[in-house]
Amino acid sequence: MADARLKAALDAGSFVVAPGIFDMISARVADGMGFTALYATGYGTVASHLGVADAGIATYTEMVARMGRFAQSCRTPVIADADTGYGGLLNLRHTVTGYEAAGVTAIQIEDQEMPKKCGHTPGRRVIAAEEMALKIEVAVEARRDPNFLVIARTDARTGLGIDEAIRRGQLYRKAGADIIFIESPESEEEMRRIGGEIDAPLLANNVEGGRTPILPAETLKAIGYNIAIYPAVGFLAVSAALERVYTHLLEHGDSNALPPQESYGFGRMNELMGFPEVWEFERRWAREAG
């Protein structure tokens, strides 16, 4: 079942900041920090699972299993990337029912041609707006729980311009999308246009080094946005940290002189992964067996 708290937060006018999660360590860390929602990034999930580019290579079966694991292991509502829905209308219906059954709270579907490409990268092509509108109608009809939210993303800005992106956002809202996601606007002025011209809850995608300026939450809310996702912030930080500590190990031959801030701490990691409960279980059953 979808978690009703995300829809309730949006209905109440709260601004939602959602960090990107990409594996179960990032999910467990983020889940304990008090965010309203977590964003299960396609880029990061594909990278951590397969070690390849987010270019339409991962299958529905692979992704629903990963997204379901995030949702079932986290107390926080999970927003999940579902690319294009992994095919046509019938595939999309299967994707929506599968993601909902897996415990995801919101599903993101985009209007790219297959195979899709990561947002903020060149060469993205989109399907006809009317075809995408049908996909949204199918998605809305397929869900069982009204708290399960459908996010419609358009990648039209980069190839077709901001006017077409806004037109598509308006059309997708009419088709029944709960949240509109205009990918990669290229200026604050464009973001203000989106906020002023699309009457729907809006999602801002904040990618460090991407095509869109990263605005403060207060500014985003003031110009009409409701959700800010940070899909890359986690895996970019982790990659940089790994490079630093691996370089130290290569150069020094041991980890003794690593600064304390470079280590999460073995004891803390044991707690994060639930070892205290395991140890308590083993102690209790050792007494029972004795």
TrEMBL record:
GO terms of molecular function: lyase activity
Xref: Gene3D superfamilies: Phosphoenolpyruvate-binding domains
UniProt keywords, alphabetically: Lyase
SUPFAM superfamilies: Phosphoenolpyruvate/pyruvate domain
Database matches in InterPro entries: ICL/PEPM (IPR039556), Pyrv/PenolPyrv_kinase-like_dom (IPR015813), Pyrv_kinase-like_dom_sf (IPR040442)
Residues annotated as signal peptide: none
Protein name: Isocitrate lyase/PEP mutase family protein
Source organism of the structure: Pararoseomonas baculiformis
